[in-house]
Amino acid sequence: MARFECSSGHGEGLKRRQALALGLAMSGVAASAGAASGVRILASSEQLRPSYDTVVVGAGSAGCVLAHRLGRAGRRVLVIEAGGRANLPAVADPPQWPTLSGSALDWRYATVPQPGLDGRIVPYPRGKAVGGSSVINALAYQAGHPAAYDRWPPGWRHADLLPYFKRAETFSGGGNAWRGGDGPLHVLSLADVRDRTPVASAFIAAAEERGFAMTPDLGGAVTTGVAWNQLSVRRHARDDAATAFLDSLGDANVDLLVDAQVLGLVIERGRCLGVRLAGQIVQPEGEVLLCAGAIDSPRLLMISGVGPADALRSLGIAVAVDMPDVGANLEDHLLLAGVAFRARREVQRSHYNHADALLYVPHAKAGESPDHLIMCLSLPFVQPAVGALPPPAYTLVPCLMRPLSRGSVRLASADPMAPALIDPNYLSDPSDLESLVAAVTLAREIGAASAFADWRAEEVYPGRNWQDTAARHDFVRRAARSFHHPVGTCRIGAVVDAALRVQGVTGLRVIDASVLPGLPAAMINAAVTAVAERASDIVLGG
Questions:
Q1: Cα 276 to chain centroid, rounded
Q2: What is the torsional sign of CA 365, 369, 372, 377?
Q3: pLDDT tens, 128-151?
Q4: Which residue, 43, 202, 227, 487, could crosslink 215 as a Cys pair with Cβ 3.0–4.6 Å?
């Protein structure tokens, strides 16, 4: 029987990935076997069982969590994933994550031209593999400030989600009131290692020199301040949603159909009957759980007739439910690449994700979530529109945590294979531009601190181009790019109810980043994982 196998010792993530590859290679053997045990890998829809309790669309972070929890509870689960196994060696090796954008594991999406960024088209990587975007992301795993969640509807606030953050993780510092100690996903604090980069140590000293306190655990009682990064890493290997939640599943009736793109949902008389594959409809006895992400979940809803009626009719799509908020309210963090410095000598590269240290800038109002994050990257990182930055160099990267600009995901056509039109509408709200100017100013002040004197040869960008308002705005527009954290396109209270059921459609829930009612004040993978953990209890509870 092909299944995900757990292994131990150094390089565990690499070994588990090899086990996954072996399972996929043996999928024909798995199909001919009898009773299921663990995750059964299917290479063809001809290998499907006669019936399933639940069909999960998408094996990203949320889909893997749901397969884990529902499978352990005895549900017969089918997970359908458009991608295949994450078989590139770079996946398991944390420092190689930048090479994964644009790879075979990436949908290679891009935005429409962004007026706020001088008309630039921005790459929009999304994971196309078992594990979803957790396979290609920068590995950062942080829940962020509680106040960001406390702006969400009842039932989804920080106190509601804290038990699920804990349930999901095994934290390198051990379990406590804030952290989990025995969950499937391993989270490494770089406070617990010794092979951190020297330039990151200089950044921490520089931030402290500017008056920011050191925070021992960004996921603990204090979530702001300067700190060592926290990553989904186990023994120097990436621990993504597949290795964490599918490898640890154990005996369960879970099938994983790979390389199979869902073409739409079958909705009749207000009920979702199943999902449409090429030449086939798969109907569960229970529910369909749509976990295709903030871009493709709204796209699949709209292609199936759930969305803004006028827009659907204009494309010749029959309207099942008129729901204007499907695909609306797209939020995404922006970062600037970047505030860059030529170094006096070679900069040691990170053994992790190149941002060993970071600063969540405390808000001026006590108890509020931060507006800004500043990361220290031990490599050259600037937008081509800004200019060249040959090594040796390091970069301070300001990030906007609470953008006010809102965008959308819309259909390009009625073709179910056509990518959606992604319009984050960056910097459409003028306050976002001014907030990023303030973040750059702070990053430059930290970069100019005496703690960096042994490293800093000169500030290359923005450098002299930071003299007046027009020049500052120009630099921000040229340096800005996506942080790749899209949320909100099927948000709770607008598209789905508090139990994540699509309003107006029975038998269908959306569970992924699209339902988040707002951005967390951190990278979004931890939030998506916790939401999926809580959603699994809701699904199991009926």
A1: 26
A2: positive
A3: 999 999 999 999 999 999 999 999
A4: 227
Task: Evaluate whether 214 touches 225 at the Cβ level (below 8 Å).
Answer: yes
How far, in Å, CA of 537 to CA of 517, rounded?
A: 20
pLDDT in tens, 91-123: 999 999 999 999 999 999 999 999 999 999 999
The answer to whether 57 and 83 have CB atoms below 8 angstroms apart is no
On the question of pLDDT at 326 being above 60, the answer is yes
Q: How far apart are CA 208 and CA 271, in angstroms?
A: 57
Pairing of strands 288-290, 339-343: unpaired
Q: How far apart are CA 406 and CA 375, in angstroms?
A: 24
**Site of tokens 């594959």:** 277
Rounded-to-integer distance, Cα 116 and Cα 127, Å = 26
Q: What is the pLDDT of residue 24?
A: 36
| Single-letter residue type at 369 | S
- Contact (Cβ atoms closer than 8 angstroms) between residue 19 and residue 4: yes
DSSP string of 497-524? -TT-BBTT-BTEEE-SGGG-SS--SS-S
Active-site residue (options: 68, 158, 236, 485): 485
Amino acid letter at 72? R
The model scores a pTM over 0.70? yes
Nearest to 340 by CA among 468, 208, 466: 466
Quick one: tokens of 420? Answer: 């959606």
> Which residue do the tokens 């379990």 mark?
175
Residue 263: Cβ within 10 Å count: 18
**For this structure, is 485 an active site residue?**
yes
Paired residues of 233 in beta bridges = 238
CA 150 to chain centre: 20
DSSP state letters, 434-479? HHHHHHHHHHHHHHTSGGGTTTEEEEEESGGG-SSHHHHHHHHHHH
The pLDDT value given to residue 30:
31
Strands 237-238 and 233-234: antiparallel
Question: Which helix H or strand E contains 21, and what residues bound it?
Answer: helix 12-25
Helix, strand or coil for residue 240? Answer: coil
Return d(Cα 228, Cα 201) in angstroms, integer. Answer: 9
Residue 18 confidence class, pLDDT cut points 50, 70, 90: very low
What is the rounded distance in angstroms from the CA atom of residue 311 to the CA atom of residue 305?
A: 10
Partners of 475 in the β-ladder: none
Residue type for 258, please? V
Nearest to 444 by CA among 339, 342, 338: 339
